[in-house]
Amino acid sequence: QVQVVESGGRSVRPGESLSLSCVASGFTRDFWAIGWFRQAPGKEREGVSCISDLDEYYADSVKGRFTNAKNKPKSTVYLHMNSLKPEDPAIYYCAFYDGSCGTNWYRFWKYDKWGQGTQVTVSS
Hints:
This protein has 124 residues and is an all-beta fold.
């Protein structure tokens, strides 16, 4: 059974950088996508980015600041977040999809398995 576990969330100051990790396990074929989502209090879950072997997408709100990196042997995806802003704090989730990101990567219902979330706080 597929599982994803994210980690790395913590409190940082505005302008600082932070990297989150997402480790996937239990998948049966080696062609998968990891989507990153975030949810702030009182707001809907928002697609942040997605990466697969075939494609990669970013939300406009994070483009140029956030980047994905994939370590395939470790089945791990990293979300490197630079220049964090006061609007970035949220619980960040990674989610697994058996396939490529596709143009509907930001639809939460696309994904098969979700991690438990990791809290990112940006505060001066």
